[in-house]
Amino acid sequence: MRRTPFVGLALMLVLLLVLVPSAEAARLFNGTTQRTESAATIDLSSYSTIAFSFWLWVDSFTSSSDIAARHGGGVPGRVVITPDDVAGTSEIFTVGDVGAVTARFTRPTAGAWHHWVVNIDYTKATDEIDTVYIDSSSQGLTYVDNTNNAGTFGNYLLALMSSLGGTAELAGRIAEMAIYGGILLSQSDVNSLYSGGAGTDARNVQSGSLVAYW
Questions:
Q1: Which helix (H) or strand (E) holds 32?
Q2: What digits encode the pLDDT tens for the residues 6-31?
Q3: Which site from 31, 79, 149, 156 is most exposed, i.e. has the minimal number of CB atoms within 10 Å?
Q4: Are 50 and 120 in contact (CB under 8 A)?
Q5: Residue 142: which of 93, 213, 189 has the closest Cα?
Q6: Which segments in the chain show pLDDT lower than 50?
Q7: CA–CA separation, 16 and 73 (whole Å)
Q8: Taking Cα atoms as reference points, which of 59, 48, 199 lies closest to residue 116?
Q9: Which of 213, 194, 177, 179 minimizes the C-alpha distance to 49?
Q10: Alpha-carbon span 194 to 175, nearest angstrom
């Protein structure tokens, strides 16, 4: 039987919905009045390796805003993922027991969903921001600070799309924010999480190491 144009359109819409995180699952931010913090502190104080995985849509990047931030002033263990002041780059910043490690990479386009994975490893002597994946592709990193830390991460609140305690700054959406403790996500894990835009639920990848998810 010949398909009607309406059936064909419906099938296209179903395929589109499969390939991006659902609107219901995403947290929305208008960049002005909407921001969020984790309901409780996220305790990573027993881990020297951690990994972040999340889907992100940024309406437009600004230079002085945070995507995700675990702040603690100058206290060791804080992590910040942010668009950078250098045009066209994003930055991962962490402070360990000795000092800062900062890595920059070419950021993905605004106005579209992208999958991010960030691996951080304090057991390494250098390049402790180990790997950053965008849409399952490993990114070239430029290190601005590269201190050798040997400690663990902190026990703080996590803020999304804003500095902790600050005003809303980035407009867009975040879905499936997951934090893993004691592991680094492998390329195979990353491929599974991304899978062309229809990846595995983050709770089902390295589930034994999942510390926080929403």
A1: none
A2: 333 333 333 333 344 544 467 777 67
A3: 31
A4: yes
A5: 93
A6: 1-20, 22-24
A7: 42
A8: 199
A9: 179
A10: 13
